[in-house]
């Protein structure tokens, strides 16, 4: 079993503390562990970007794109139950989606960023400024052309995860928010996690949500930016999850146990998790060789890209999978070394993940 070197773990904690103390990162929480042990979470910084409010216990972070693989885990349950396959075409569930040459897009393309859809809809900002519901984003996706034929290239796309959420609802009769709550969050005891938080949950938890330091464009949008009530409650399936390090650790430990909860309930089969965390681009013959070999994707999960330090750092095994979030968050799970790491912060990290990569290296080095 892997063991944590306390001195090396302290190196990671000292890095985070220093960045919080000098204001480079307003708030940050670290945790790491194995399938049955948790170290941390340890938090530093302030609830507010100005540093004037203390960080509460068990802070709840907006984790941005870490939302995507969790939505993908919901879709994985459909595959296990025989309710869908990766080869199913989106138009079989959402006929309107077929406009503008999108008839050939399959679920596998949405899950691997090979659909040809854009990252965001062209009117993303206008819709957010209008506090639009998710259905308006979805209807705009229906009208969009593809940048390339599905399965021919890789283009990171948030829009595809809204489409997946709608398919999940069409198949199960439950919203993505409710499906994830009932099928994942509740069985794992993730009581401080919500996608599209209802008013009662949000009002009870709002005092524990740290402010994200906003970029120029976001600062101009108080009614719709990352810190707005609108965005925190919208439940965007591509980036709207609110959660804690404790709750994400429960999920990571379940995945390291092959999909089993601490009580022995099986949330996912080993077969499903193996598919989700295996390079799915390898079988897509029209994907450029460099993408297939050097920048692999599983089903919603980014796999380790050894030649790219960004976000994941440099010291993870080839079997590592995880995701980052634009608000300054990172989750990785290394099944070869049986470890995981969680970094949640309020300092946006795009595009290189300066803080995340360095912390990832320090945490990975602490395990032996």
From TrEMBL:
<keyword id="KW-0378">Hydrolase</keyword>
<dbReference type="InterPro" id="IPR012338">
    <property type="entry name" value="Beta-lactam/transpept-like"/>
</dbReference>
<dbReference type="Pfam" id="PF00144">
    <property type="entry name" value="Beta-lactamase"/>
</dbReference>
<dbReference type="InterPro" id="IPR001466">
    <property type="entry name" value="Beta-lactam-related"/>
</dbReference>
<protein>
    <submittedName>
        <fullName>Class A beta-lactamase-related serine hydrolase</fullName>
    </submittedName>
</protein>
<dbReference type="InterPro" id="IPR050789">
    <property type="entry name" value="Diverse_Enzym_Activities"/>
</dbReference>
<feature type="domain" description="Beta-lactamase-related">
    <location>
        <begin position="22"/>
        <end position="358"/>
    </location>
</feature>
<dbReference type="GO" id="GO:0016787">
    <property type="term" value="F:hydrolase activity"/>
</dbReference>
């Amino acid at each position: 079993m892997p063991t944590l070197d306390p001195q090396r773990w302290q190196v990671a904690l000292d890095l985070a503390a220093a960045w919080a103390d000098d204001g480079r990162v307003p708030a940050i929480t670290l945790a790491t562990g194995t399938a049955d042990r948790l170290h941390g979470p340890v938090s530093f910084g302030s609830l507010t970007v100005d540093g004037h409010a203390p960080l509460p216990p068990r802070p709840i972070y907006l984790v941005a794109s870490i939302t995507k693989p969790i939505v993908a885990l919901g879709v994985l349950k459909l595959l296990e139950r025989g309710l869908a396959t990766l080869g199913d075409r989106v138009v079989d569930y959402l006929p309107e989606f077929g406009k503008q040459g999108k008839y050939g897009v399959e679920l596998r393309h949405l899950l691997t960023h090979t659909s040809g859809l854009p990252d965001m809809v062209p009117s993303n900002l206008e819709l957010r400024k209008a506090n639009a519901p998710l259905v308006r984003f979805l209807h705009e996706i229906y009208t969009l052309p593809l940048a390339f034929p599905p399965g021919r290239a890789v283009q990171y796309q948030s829009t595809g995860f809204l489409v997946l959420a709608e398919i999940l609802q069409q198949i199960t009769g439950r919203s993505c928010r409710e499906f994830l709550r009932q099928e994942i969050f509740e069985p794992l005891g993730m009581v401080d996690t919500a996608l599209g938080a209802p008013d009662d949950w949000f009002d009870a938890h709002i005092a524990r949500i740290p402010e994200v330091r906003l970029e120029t464009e976001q600062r101009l949008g108080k009614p719709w930016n990352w810190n707005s009530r609108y965005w925190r409650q919208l439940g965007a399936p591509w980036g709207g999850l609110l959660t804690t390090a404790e709750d994400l650790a429960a999920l990571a430990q379940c995945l390291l146990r092959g999909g089993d909860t601490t009580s022995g309930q099986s949330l996912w089969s080993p077969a499903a998790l193996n598919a989700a965390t295996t390079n799915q681009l390898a079988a897509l013959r029209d994907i450029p060789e460099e993408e297939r070999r050097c920048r692999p994707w599983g089903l919603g999960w980014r796999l380790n890209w050894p030649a790219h330090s960004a976000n994941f750092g440099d010291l993870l095994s080839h079997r590592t999978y995880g995701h980052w979030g634009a608000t300054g968050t990172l989750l990785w799970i290394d099944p070869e070394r049986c470890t995981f790491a969680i970094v949640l912060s309020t300092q946006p990290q795009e595009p290189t993940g300066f803080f995340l990569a360095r912390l990832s290296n320090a945490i990975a080095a602490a395990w032996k």
